[in-house]
Target: Cyclic nucleotide-binding domain
Amino acid sequence: MASPVSFTDYLKQIFELSKEDEDFTEKHFERQEFKKNEILLNGGEVCTKLHFVSEGLLRTFHINKNGTEFTRLFVPEGKFCTVLLSFQEKIPSPATIQAIENSVLYSISHTNFIKIISGSAAAKNIYTSILENYQNFQITRLEFLTTLSPQEKVEEFLKENTDLELRISDKIIASYLQITPETYSRCKKKMSS
Model:
């Protein structure tokens, strides 16, 4: 597990927060704890919260009609997590959110989130930053999944995520790379030989 990230310190590093902004933000974000493997949101439920990961690791995943699980996203300390479409549009989520490790989150409800972004320019900037990062990630991820071979996916993932690789099972990493666990294992072995 990586070092905990203070929510307030994170916000201060990224944005200039007035004391009022800081108080307003802290008032509306609730500290929550989740155990390893605990589900925060089931697919089919409406996602009503935006989470900041202070400690631990989350993932979002979905299960296709054949029962195969696909991990969409890993969310470590210092990052935000939600199922954006469900959160924004108040529609059933296509994905599940799960704690991969014991986790401490700072969460805000959709109702309080709307209050906070209408009452604070800093909060609007934070949300804009979250949206931009999410969009950039999705574009990069689509290119990653559609242009790289299984071996290249494994090499790229391990190069860019040395810390995460030690915290996540091979099976879950394989589902993120959209390859079988056997292929993932074979590609890893090929790298070390």
About this structure: Residues 121-147 form the longest helix (27 residues). Residues 7-125 form a domain with the Jelly Rolls fold (CATH 2.60.120.10). The beta strands are 30-34, 39-41, 49-55, 58-63, 69-75, 80-81, 96-99, 103-109.
